[in-house]
Amino acid sequence: MTRQESTGAHSIATELPRRLGGRGAFWAAAFVLALALWSSGAPSVLYPIYAEQWDLTPVVVTTVFATYQLALIVVLPLFGNLSDQFGRRRIMITGIALIGASALVIAFAPHVAYLYAGRVLQGAGAGLAMGAATASMIENNTSRGPRFASTMATVATSTGLTIALLLSGLFAEYLPLPLLWSYIVLLALAGASITTLLLTPEDRPSVRTRWRPQAPFVPSGIRIGFVIATLSVALAYSVGAIFLSLGAHMIDQFTHTDNTAIVGTLLATSSAFIGITGLFLARISPRTLIWAGAGLTLVSLALMAAASAFQSLPLFLAWCVIGGIAYALAFTGGLGLITRLAPEHHRGATLSFLYLIAYTLQAATAIGVGALATTTSLGAAVKVAAIALTLLSATVAALLLADRSTTAHTEPASS
Fold this sequence. Notes:
Layout: H1 3-15, H2 22-41, H3 47-54, H4 58-79, H5 82-86, H6 88-107, H7 112-139, H8 148-174, H9 181-198, H10 223-255, H11 260-278, H12 286-310, H13 313-341, H14 347-375, H15 378-402, H16 406-410
Helix pairs in contact: 2-6, 2-7, 2-8, 2-9, 4-7, 4-10, 4-14, 6-7, 6-9, 7-14, 8-11, 8-13, 10-11, 10-12, 10-13, 10-14, 10-15, 11-13, 12-13, 12-15, 14-15
């Protein structure tokens, strides 16, 4: 071997450990999804503290929560196809950088305007990162199971949310500066995520066209399936909106506790069951999951309304468990269905459009419930939300019944 060849081989050998392969890219994208949901849920345990400190009404709290979704609604139609043009990795890095910036803004917020600004940054970052991360997981899925990517996306998002809720409650209860530490951890993890993404392979398409904002669209031939998948994800998100924006207030109403560690643990129960359930869904067909998700969501809505009406902590805990399982079924089923339907060259844009609609309905749910809770009562608002989401569940079921042909496009032939 010549000296030049030896030097080249040494260069390759030293470079390889610095780069991650497809498997590493898959888990790096899962980490991105976890952080996106971490940023969404980090303030949930702290909302009562903000409300007491700054004298905020329920509608202000829920609009702070929904600002995240509203930012997504703006970002996704304009930039949802960026990762199709410039690669998943670059767009995920940009999104995580915005989430890291949001952590700084919220950590040192002197009044509620900074919460709105931080939530805008979080929503914009998640809007860029989530579609790209989901597409990256699909494309770097090294498992033989085609549904592994959508299942792991569910587990990743629930893990990020669970840890955020638990740590926020523990930090606020047992550390000084209760509104600071959860965001400092988020900032550190954002830095770790960007570092990991930089080590993954470049995935910018070899054939590039000039980028331009792309109006939301659904590729022809998959539209009914897209609607079913999107409404299934939206159903999960809308129930989650009530839970994350007003769940801490409901616990306070039932127990009159100001122990944020207890509040965080109760809220984390639901997201933990999302992840636990998600581990067992990889082999179940998307349509079956959507059916089960819609049905079990009806049960969870009944428990939610009963918990509010009777101010019962056991019923609230039951809602957390059943609602978490229902969320996992509906979200994984919807994501699994669109994974099978979306063509690769439009996958980022299609996933972003799905998230756009789902987050629009989530924002509308949060703001609507907050407005009703402010003008009437929290109990009345929860009852109205339960009725509205029952209708959405029925719509999903009706669409599944009306479109039996979707089975032919989504189910593999039995072996």
